[in-house]
Every structure is written in C-alpha cells, then in structure tokens.
UniProtKB/TrEMBL annotation:
It comes from Streptomyces arboris. One of its GO terms (biological process) is potassium ion transport. Residues 1-20 have a biased composition (Pro residues). Residues 415-537 form the RCK N-terminal domain. This is Potassium transporter TrkA. Keywords: Membrane, Transmembrane, Transmembrane helix. It holds the Pfam family TrkA_N. The keyword Methyltransferase does not apply. The chain crosses the membrane at residues 323-342, 374-399. Residues 1-25, 250-273 are annotated as: Disordered.
Length: 670
C-alpha cells in the first residue's frame, strides 16, 4: 500500500573506532507525521545530516497502518529518494544545477520511548547544530527541551507547542539559560537559539482560506496583512491584473475535471511558483496567485461570537409560550377598551382597574354597575390564565439559562455557513480563524470532551455532538444549506466518508479535507473533481504545510507564513542581506531568481530599532495614529540591496534552502 520499503540505514549506537563523531547534524524527535516530514525536508531539501528519533511500535494516530513508525519513515524516505533521482535524471535537480544531497549520509533512524538524557546523548545532542522536538504532547517537548539545553547550551532548539502563552515563557527561559551559559553571545544568535512553533497555527490560515470564496491566503508582517489571492484565467479580450506581483501560476489542469492538484512531481503542467514576466505573459488559460492587497492588522482582535452576547427572546421562550402571552395581552387590552366604553371611565383609570382585577388585587365591585361587574369577572378569568403562563415562562427561562452554558444548537434559518468537522488542535485553531473573519460556522464533534468544546461554548458556536459517519449528523449541521465543508479530523477515512456523503447531499458544496498520504490525496482529489466538476475540492496535509516552517526555524531563520499553491508550498521569510551573495550588492530586479525567490519588501527601520519578530503585531499607542511600519513594499527595481538591509522574500522550499546553504558556505558554523 505504501510502496517499496528500502533497507534502513545503519544504526551505530556509539561512534565506531577510527570514525570521527558526527558534528553539526540535526536531530528530529517526534511521534507523528510532522517528525517524518520534517526529517524529509531537512534531508532532501536542505541537504542536512539528520538523526530521526521515533517511538517504537505503530503510529498512535494511524493504528490501522501495518507499518511501525520506523517502517513508515523508511518508506517515506524511499519515495522521496526515488523522486529526487527521477528529478535529477530529468535535468532539474535544484537551483543552479547543484545537488542538495551530494555527499550527505542517509537519515539515521533511532527508536526510543522517551527522549531521555541517555537517548539524546546517543543521538549526539552535544555535537548537534539543532534539535526539533515535535511530539504531540507539550509536556514531553518541554521536558526534553530543558534536558537538551542543559546538555548543550549552544544548541538551537525548535519546539512544537500548542499553548501560545506557555511557549512565549518557555522561549524566554531557554534563551536566558543559553545567555547565562554563553556570556557575551551575539543577540542575533540568541534570538534564533530557541523557536517555539505550533503546527496548528501554521496550517490554520491555509485551511480556513479554503472555505472563502476567492481562496485568499493571509500572511502577517509587522502588523501588515499580505493577501495572496487566486484569480481565474482571464476570458478572451480581458487583461489579467497582476496585482502587486504574480506569485504563482496554477496548473494547466485546474479547469479540467479529471485534472489533479499539482505537486513537486507534476512537471511543466503543474503549478509554477514565482514565475518571471515572460512566463506569465506566455501562460494562457492558467489561473494565477497574486499579491493583491496590504492592510494593517488589528491588535489582539478577539474572535467574535455567533448570535451576539445576549440570548435573543426567541431562544429564551418557545414560540407556543410567546403566542400565549400575546393572547393574554390582547385579552387585557380588550377588557380595558370594554371598560372605557361601558363605564365612561378614563383610559388610564380603566387600565389600572383591569390590571388589579387580572392580578386578583382589587375589591369586589358590589355596588358598581352590571357592566363593571361583568368586566371584573372576565378579568379574573384572564388572570387565571395568566398564572400558568407566568409559571411556564419562569421554567423556560431557567431551562434556557441552564443550557446557555451548554452547546448551542444550529438555528433553523441558518444558511451559507461552514461545517467544520473535528475540534482537535487543528480544528480549534481553524474555528478561531473563521470567527475572526466573521464566517458563520457549525461544528461537528464526536467527543464531548474534545479540546475545542469549551471554546465553541464560549463563542456560542452551534455544535452537533455525534459521529459524522452516522446518519442524520450532517443533516443536523444543516449541510444542505452550507457553503463549505472542512473535514479536519485526524482519521483520513472519516474525512473521506463525510466528504462523499456531503457531496451526495449537495453536489456543488465546497470541500476541503485533511489527508496525510499525498498519493491517496491525489487520487481522492481527481475522483471528486471528475464526479463533481462544478464544485471546488481541496485536500490538505497539516504536516505538509507545517514542516517547511519548522525546517527553516532549524536553520535559524524566521518564517512569516506558508501559503499552499495546490500541493506545493510557498514560504514568506525575513532575511538579513548580509552574507547572501545572491542579494547583497544587487538591485531588486537582479536579485529576483525565477522559481526560487523574489524580494517583496525592505525593512527601512534602523538595525538597532528593528522588531526581531516581524510576524508579531507591534504595540499600538493608546491614543493617536498607529506607528507607521518600517517595511517598504513599493520597491524600485533599481534599488541596490545593502548588507545592513533586512528583506521580506517569497521563496520556494528549494530556493530558500539555496539561500541558506550558500550562507553556510560563506560563513561556516564555528
């Protein structure tokens, strides 16, 4: 099912006699697909020597897979090696014709239940350049990070944490420990010594974007939002608007129902990242991804609630109770009018007497005219009807207050919403992202104790508890009137089954499903496109989206975001020009390398005043206009890049690896 499994590399426990110990290598520790993909990224894209530490046994997230963690990793490495050999045989083996993996040993695979002191020492943590801790358990990653920092204070750490606040505190603690162990360390090196990332935060914007009409992707840099948007091919006689710049050309099979999303092995028919002007002009019938707009980000904008802060009257009291209350009110008004007409009393005094009669607070009208006595009797009867009505209202109000702390049901008239399947780590982050964009959402989750259930409750998001594969669950989520379906559970077969059923109910439904295996995802995508050519279908892998960001962090660089272009990934990064001969001393136009990298902006802020984290929203002043950004986006093609400049670039995975690899050649690690 997974293809040929090649022989595993040798596993030397200790350095062999006569063989120098491995130094400057990279260690990846994890227990799921992200660890394996990260090792592939470092080995086959950046050409690094990698030691992969996996737990023994099968993958807990895929118990149905017959291969162990070690076997799945070996199979993945085998497929990547075969793909690299095919690429090299076709004469397209990397930028500049250089072999990224020349002279690099195969990935060393180790198995251990925990990254203990002895295991990390055996992996060579004291001689390693970087360590990635990408276990699914935050506590295990923290414990291993503290151990690794003690064993090697100079080690660059990349840690996977879901808890954002805890990650910030941990990053400060580990950087402080490195500063104490290495007095006088360069602040720039210290800033890159510890990086805390979340695969959920990295993948959520791309997953949420698939639910939007127009397929926009958002990248944040120093409080500014870069929006990359897909545009269909122009019609005959129309001129394509390039926006600020063209980031990619979509596959030539995008409009072909039998076509598939392009990947790294699609060749010339697949998507082309960062094309030059001649390629864009010559491309006919192909859509584009353009840098469309730049706007300022709101500071700490909270995710909005659905339905407002207060519960509307229709949710507190039932329709039957509201109609009954209206009937009693009409009867009271009729009694007031009858009292005014028969007794000649004023409207105010008649209303007062009628209310007293309704509530049983008035004295009997023994000496009053007969009309007044009859009205008093009728008012008493209406008062008897009012008593059970008040009791019912109190009971319903208490019931509503009791269920207000529980999950909200999808309202009857809801339409045009997004149905989100799964509230794990990924689904929770995507839910927050969708609500920040004010997109109505209905959540379907099987586990009532799932991670995102409290968030859905606090945001008043309609939630359906149940197995999505069971009949009636998707109907309860109003799938027939939904705009899109995001199937983000951790089980591929569940996502596929829910997608197929949703398409049978609504053939034109927009669908994005989370799938791990690329070959399986391609087959599913092509089948769905053939069966439903009029509907948009996307398949996404969280580990595929997150692995490039983790890999670049291990190289000591900052990633602003990753944008999926079909099944390829484009990276946005911040780089110092110094040490990059492809950039330093060249104009912006000369620095552009088609299919590799493009300079988008320059940070004009003096080096001493620069924000070290461009991805963070800068603090806004309490009063007055916000501080202007130091990033200059409207670049003149003739501007010469200087060593002190910091630039924002869009790059392919191999293009960014080429920049970082050549920098290592210019300035080798001490």
């Amino acid at each position: 099912m997974l293809g040929f499994v090649p022989p595993l590399p040798q596993q030397p426990g200790r350095p062999q006699p006569g063989r120098p110990p491995s130094t400057g290598h990279m260690i990846v520790c994890g227990d799921d697909a992200l660890a394996r993909r990260l090792a592939v990224e470092l080995r086959f894209v950046y050409g690094e020597r990698v030691t992969l530490l996996l737990p023994p046994g099968r993958d807990a997230n895929s118990p149905e897979t017959p291969l162990t963690q070690r076997g799945r990793a070996a199979a993945l490495f085998g497929r990547m090696s075969a793909a690299m050999n095919r690429t090299a045989a076709n004469g397209s083996g990397g930028t500049g014709g250089s072999d990224t993996n020349a002279g690099v040993e195969a990935v060393r695979i180790m198995e251990a239940p925990e990254p203990s002191d002895d295991v990390l020492e055996e992996a060579g943590v004291d001689r390693a350049a970087a360590l990635a801790l990408v276990y699914d358990d935050d506590e295990r990653n923290i414990r291993a990070a503290l151990t690794a920092r003690r064993l090697n204070p100079r080690l660059r750490l990349v840690i996977r944490l879901y808890n954002r606040k805890l990650g910030q505190h941990l990053e400060e603690l580990l950087d402080q420990a490195a500063a104490v162990a290495m007095p006088g360390i360069d602040p720039a090196l210290l800033d890159a010594s510890t990086t805390v990332l979340s695969d959920a935060d990295t993948a959520a914007p791309a997953l949420a974007a698939t639910a939007l009409t127009g397929s926009s992707k958002i990248i944040q840099a120093e409080g500014l939002l870069l929006r990359a948007a897909e545009r269909p091919p122009p019609r005959p006689g129309e001129t394509m608007d390039p926006g600020l710049c063209t980031l990619a050309l979509l596959s030539s099979t995008t409009n072909d129902p039998a076509g598939s999303e392009g990947s790294e092995g699609s060749g010339a028919e697949g998507p082309q990242l960062l094309p030059d002007e001649q390629t864009v002009a010559a491309a006919e019938g192909r859509g584009t991804v353009v840098l469309e707009a730049i706007s300022r980000a709101d500071p700490d904008r909270p995710a909005t609630r659905m339905g407002g802060r207060g519960a509307p009257l229709a949710q507190v009291f039932s329709r039957r109770l509201r109609w009954s209350a209206l009937g009693v009110a009409v009867a009271a008004v009729a009694l007031v009018i009858a009292s005014v007409l028969t007794t000649g009393d004023s409207a105010i005094h008649s209303t007062y007497l009628t209310l007293l009669d309704l509530l049983g607070m008035n004295d009997p009208s023994e000496d009053a005219p007969a009309a007044r006595q009859i009205i008093q009797l009728l008012s008493g009867v209406a008062g008897l009807l009012l008593l059970p009505l008040l009791i019912a209202a109190v009971l319903e109000a208490f019931g509503t207050l009791r269920t207000a702390a529980s999950l909200r049901r999808p309202p009857r008239g809801l339409s045009g919403h997004v149905v989100l399947l799964g509230l794990g780590k990924i689904g929770t982050r995507v839910l927050v992202r969708l609500r920040e964009l004010d997109i109505p959402v209905v959540v379907v989750e099987e586990d009532p104790e799932a991670r995102g259930i409290p968030l859905a409750r606090s945001m008043h998001v309609p939630t359906v508890l149940g197995d999505v594969t069971q009949e009636g669950v998707l109907e309860a989520a109003k799938i027939r009137r939904a705009h899109a379906l995001l199937a983000l559970t951790s089980i591929d077969t569940t996502n596929l089954e829910a997608t197929l059923y949703a398409r049978s109910v609504k053939p034109d439904l927009r669908v994005a499903l989370r799938l791990y295996d690329d070959e399986f995802a391609t087959a599913v995508y092509r089948t769905l496109r053939t069966a439903h050519p009029q509907a948009l279908t996307r398949s996404r892998s969280v580990s595929h989206l997150a692995a490039p960001s983790f890999a670049v962090a291990m190289m000591g660089r900052q990633i602003l975001g990753a944008v999926p272009v079909e099944r390829k990934v484009m990276l946005f990064a911040a780089l110092e020009v110094a040490g990059h001969p492809q950039l330093e001393g060249r104009t912006v136009e000369q620095a552009f390398q088609a299919s590799s990298w493009r300079v988008l902006a320059i940070d004009a802020t003096p080096p001493a005043d620069r924000n070290p984290d461009l991805a963070a929203v800068p603090p806004y002043p309490p009063q007055g206009p916000p501080t202007p950004s130091g990033l200059v986006w409207d670049l003149h093609p003739g501007y010469v890049l200087r060593a002190q400049d910091r630039v924002v670039i869009a790059a392919t995975r191999r293009g960014l690896a080429e920049l970082l690899r050549r920098q290592r050649t210019v300035a080798p690690r001490q």
